[in-house]
Write a structure and sequence with these properties.
four-stranded mixed β-sheet; alpha+beta; globular; about 20% helix
């Protein structure tokens, strides 16, 4: 018996590079929003912790980096009022205008 191993392409997307089709995919998989528990915590290449929403398709394993900008983009794109996690729940907000985490 031969067992084939399929390596899925893994793509990390953020609010600057996400397409309309990818936003639709997120909203289709999470029509009522998502919770912090739905997110994966990973280290990026510089060692910084990031939170990602993982969605697997037949061809690609998407990791959508969730930050204030991505949440706002998804909320604007959705026709419905969907439930999103509170931005004070440990989300990465570095470089976001109006970030008050400098306490």
């Amino acid at each position: 018996m031969v067992i084939e191993s399929v390596v899925m392409k893994r793509i990390i997307k953020d609010f600057k590079t996400i397409t309309k089709e990818q936003m639709d995919l997120i909203l289709e998989r999470f029509p009522d929003g998502f919770e912090v528990e739905d997110l994966k915590t990973l280290h990026d290449m510089s060692g910084k912790l990031i939170r990602c929403l993982e969605i697997k398709t037949d061809e690609v394993d998407y990791l959508f980096k969730m930050d204030v900008n991505m949440i706002e983009l998804l909320d604007d794109h959705s026709d419905d009022d969907i439930d999103m996690p509170d931005m004070d729940d440990g989300f990465d907000t570095d470089g976001v205008e109006g970030d008050d985490d400098d306490d």
